[in-house]
Design brief:
The protein folds into 4 domains: about 120 residues, Pleckstrin-homology domain (PH domain)/Phosphotyrosine-binding domain (PTB) (PH-domain like, Roll), CATH 2.30.29.30; about 60 residues, no CATH class; about 80 residues, Winged helix-like DNA-binding domain superfamily/Winged helix DNA-binding domain (Arc Repressor Mutant, subunit A, Orthogonal Bundle); about 60 residues, Orthogonal Bundle (Arc Repressor Mutant, subunit A). Helices cover about 50% and strands about 20% of the residues. The protein has 14 helices and 13 strands. The radius of gyration is 27 Å and the shape is extended.
């Protein structure tokens, strides 16, 4: 298929965006057809328009193809073949490629697609980013010549002063308006990460810098981008949330309350459109159906939590058994202190190890303790003695 090439997807099935790229429209149940009858049609996938590309993603989310906007013809030829029973709109996308919108919202989806493409072509974000890179390279080369000419303490101070001025200008221009803030979010995140890597402060200042460095979910999905299609919006949101939370949930021991996950996600969305708690909960509830390797569980306390099972291979249960043998017995508090994880996750791991037969519990007035399970060995030796 001319101009379309395979592109990268994340583990959650979302588009791996390019530098400075974000999504402007997402349309479901779109078919790409070529004039070559031998070619396999790309049927009922997700069509995404970004600031750089047009991307078609397979319904299984295992494969995607993309064409750069620079390859688009100067004008899109639109043919409306709708009838009372079915809305069908065809757009001639370059030589030999057609985009078929065959959903009930065919005409409306066509308008969204053409508007998004025309807006992206007018903005030419890819050109702006290329010019910015060239400017940065030239500035870096100029700074190198300047440093070589101005060695010593005076030269270093001048260079630091100039860098601080550039960072201040970037931040000021980024906060000038909401649109510019969205477009320059990546630059602001880079600056925040640079601040964190170079600072030696501690306490609250360090915590603030860590928070700043974690800013920015790339190309956050919005209701506007999906045209108000709730099903598509929540599925895309589910994939994006799982991709964002995976590493962070594992960092805190594999368990994070749904409330904490919601606050963390909202803080990191580089968008003015927040996600309602209802949409967030529905998106998280789809983790299992979409097989994203992350799930939502209800703890014994009734609290909902985002959970990643990292103990399916029994290695975690064996590690807890070894810890119990070393300490004679262990509690959830011991695991929490040793593994640096939430107490709820520690207790869940102990119960999983118990269910797998590695630990045995003892409930006393002192609380719940877990011991290495010696019953299996005792039963085995008893059977051998009888034999």
């Amino acid at each position: 298929m001319e101009h379309f090439t395979t592109c990268e997807l994340t583990q959650a099935g979302t588009l791996a965006t390019l530098e400075g790229e974000y999504t402007t429209a997402s349309i479901d149940k779109v078919t790409l057809v070529t004039h070559d009858k031998k070619a396999t049609p790309h049927v009922k996938g997700l069509l995404t328009v970004t600031t750089h590309r047009v991307v078609w993603t397979d319904p299984t989310r295992r494969r995607a193809i993309a064409a750069p906007l620079t390859a688009l013809p100067s004008s899109l030829q639109v043919v409306d073949k709708s009838n009372p029973l079915r809305a069908r709109v065809i757009i001639n996308f370059g030589r030999g490629v057609r985009v078929n919108f065959e959903s009930r919202n065919g005409p409306r989806d066509r308008e969204r697609f053409t508007a998004a493409v025309q807006d992206a072509c007018a903005r030419k974000e890819w050109k702006r980013i290329a010019e910015q890179k060239a400017k940065e390279a030239a500035e870096k080369e100029r700074m190198g010549d300047y440093v070589r000419r101005r060695a010593g303490a005076g030269g270093v101070q001048d260079r630091v002063r100039m860098q601080n001025m550039q960072r201040r200008d970037a931040i000021n221009s980024g906060f000038a308006s909401i649109d510019q803030l969205r477009g320059q979010a990546e630059d602001l995140v880079k600056i925040a990460r640079l601040f964190r890597s170079k600072t030696n402060s501690s306490g609250e200042d360090n915590e603030l810098l860590n928070m700043m460095a974690e800013m920015g979910i790339e190309s956050p999905v919005t209701k506007e981008a999906t045209g108000g299609n709730v099903a598509v919006y929540r599925e895309e949101l589910s994939r994006q949330i799982s991709h964002f939370l995976r590493k962070r949930v594992l960092t805190v021991g594999g368990l994070m309350t749904l409330t904490d996950a919601y606050c963390l996600t909202m803080r990191n969305r580089a968008s003015t459109e927040l996600v309602s708690p209802e949409d967030f909960r529905a998106a998280c509830g789809a983790f299992g159906r979409l097989k994203l390797g992350i799930e939502v569980r209800r703890l014994e306390s009734g609290v909902l939590a985002v959970y990643i099972d990292s103990t399916k291979d029994r290695s975690g249960a064996q590690a807890l058994c070894d810890m119990a043998m070393e300490m004679t017995s262990i509690t959830a508090l011991d695991v929490m202190q040793k593994r640096h994880m939430p107490i709820q996750r520690a207790l869940a791991m102990l119960r999983e190890a118990e269910a797998l037969g590695y630990l045995a519990r003892d409930e006393t007035t002192d609380g719940l303790r877990f011991f290495p399970n010696g019953f299996d060995a005792l039963l085995k030796s008893s059977k051998e003695g009888r034999a």
